[in-house]
Amino acid sequence: TQVSKQPAVLQLFHLDHTVPLEIQGANYAYYEPRCAHGSSLSHSVHALVATRLGLHDEAYRYFWQTATIDLLSTSKAVVGGTENTDRLEEESRRLSEVQQEFSRVASGEITFERDQVIYSGAIYANDPAAVREELAEFVRRASAATARQGGGEVVLTAAQFNSLVEVISETEGSDLVRLISPRNQFSPTQVEVVVEALENTRVFERGRLLVSRNVHLGSPELPASQDELRTAISQLKADALRMVRRSGLDELQVPEYVGASDESFTNQLLRLSGPVVIGVATVEPVDRAGPALVELVIVY
């Protein structure tokens, strides 16, 4: 069929931000005119993906359809949507607020999005007093990070701070602490957060080969070009990023490459010929909170 009831592919892009924008754009261009919007989630997913692609006019149109689905009774699931005057006025007020907020988001004014992980890191102490000291320093580092992004200092309530101390003190080993934005925030002087503490589990041991890729380096008479090798290395790094994400590395962490630079590694490959396997391997053990120290390697 040439018609899709709901945006299954675009929903995937909404959930996985690591998919390259050119792939998202190509699929959006294909599926958008073929979607029948039979699902109540359809318009919102289109609005989110269109915003990410910079298609602000289309994003606004889909946002408006999402926001008015109950107010204007455009969904079959709505019954008697305009009979209650008080409810209508309240919905209209809320819609106006949402519209203003969306306009600010579309114009790039937003500093932190709802459910965005603002800052994360590991707490290694277990004794309550030591946990308090390390957690206070963690919050200071978080405030420095939010200031660099155009926000103010991070604010933890006493209840949030004490709850974290209690949870971390009861956990063996280290903990991954994440600060998450509870709502859209626009250049806030004080950054609101919800807190989350997770066990900082081991993700990879030292020397683990994360990903590998076959590359043919040509012959001495007709070697592979530098551009071909740079493309292969770029694809290998993209594979490594997806691998660590699937394995549980915190979303604010990315592989940190040590050892040979891309240029140096390319020059190493240019001195070889024939088929080889290149890969990305861990240099040190990697926990969920990072860091993820890795290097480019020639496997064989």
Structure explained in plain terms:
It is a single chain. It is built from nine helices and eleven strands. The chain has 300 residues and is of the alpha+beta class. 24% of the residues are buried. The longest helix is centred in the first third of the chain and has 22 residues, at 85-106. Helix 3 (42-52) runs antiparallel to helix 4 (56-67) and helix 6 (128-148) packs across helix 7. It has a four-stranded mixed β-sheet. It has a three-stranded antiparallel β-sheet with strand order 1-3-5, with helices on one face. The model is unreliable at 76-82 (pLDDT under 50).
Short description:
This protein has 300 residues and is an alpha+beta fold.
> What low-confidence regions span 5 or more consecutive residues with pLDDT below 50?
76-82
Number of strands: 11
Distance between the termini: 47 Å
N-to-C order of helices and strands: HHHHHEHEHEEEEEHEHEEE
Count of DSSP-assigned helices: 9
What is the beta-strand fraction? 15-25%
The level of helicity is 40-55%
**Outline:** flat
Reported for the largest beta sheet, the result is:
4 strands, mixed
